Amino acid sequence: MRFYTGQHRYYCGIDLHARTLYLCVLDSQGEVRLHKRLRCEPEALLRALEPYRSDLVMGSECIFCWYWLADLCAREGIAFVLGHALYMKAIHGAKAKNDNIDSHKTAVLLRGGAFPLAYVYPRDMRATRDLLRRRQPRSVTPIANRPSARPPCSSSRTTPAARLISRSSSAATAKGKRSVFSPHASVVPPTSCSRTARTSISNASMHAREHGRGGRRA
Questions:
Q1: pTM over cut 0.90
Q2: What residues contact 30, with CB distance under 8 A and at least 6 apart?
């Protein structure tokens, strides 16, 4: 891990968010010169930093909205460094945490040479990187799992329950008893239909077993 060790007259730590930021400016002696919240507007930030721009370095944690800050510093000739989010959390992680504290700790890390560096991606290459990061890979559904490949509920496949019902119905018909089950009726596969259909098949199976026993005793 590389750390920023540059020496400057002023060190500006920024706790950045989507709409607001909290900045803290320290001098070379560690005294706080500016500590306030601003909106994420380039003009407001430049006005606040105007007295310290003679020899200033600005540091921010690497989050999703740092692009505009890096571009602003590059345009205005301000030194900018990007902090590695994971290593910064390991260095200054604490129970007391808010924007005020985080901006001050960022400035302290800059001044003390313990600011862990992340790569400031060039502006011309960011669009390609973001496209590769955020694109949604096309998911291919196996043929066996596609709806068109699944058998309908009135499939002619026989299940153990269906075979039991068919045998019991045939036996009852051979003994001259009226069967409540038709051996030619289509049986709904339990795996592809509703819970109600599966419960009906289970009840029919139990009834068929009892019906077959009564027929054999007769």
A1: no
A2: 108, 111
- Lookup result for tokens 């669009």: 127
What's the chain's length in residues?
218
Task: Say if residue 96 is in the same domain as residue 173.
Answer: no
Q: Phi-psi category of 27—alpha, beta or left, where left has phi over 0 and alpha has psi -120 to 50?
A: beta
Asked whether residue 146 is assigned to any structural domain, the reply reads no
Question: Is 185 a residue whose pLDDT tops 50?
Answer: no
**DSSP H/E element including 216:** helix 195-217
> Are 62 and 117 found together in one domain?
yes
Would you call 182 helix, strand, or coil by DSSP? coil
The token pair at 125 is 């290459």
Task: Give pairs for 157-160: CB < 8 Å, separation 24+.
Answer: 157/189, 158/187, 159/187, 159/189, 159/190, 159/201
pLDDT 10s digits, 100-134: 899 999 999 999 999 999 999 888 888 888 888 77
> Residue 18 is part of a domain; what is its CATH number?
3.30.420.40
The 10s digit of each residue's pLDDT in 155-181 is: 455 566 666 666 666 665 555 544 444
- 138 inside domain: no
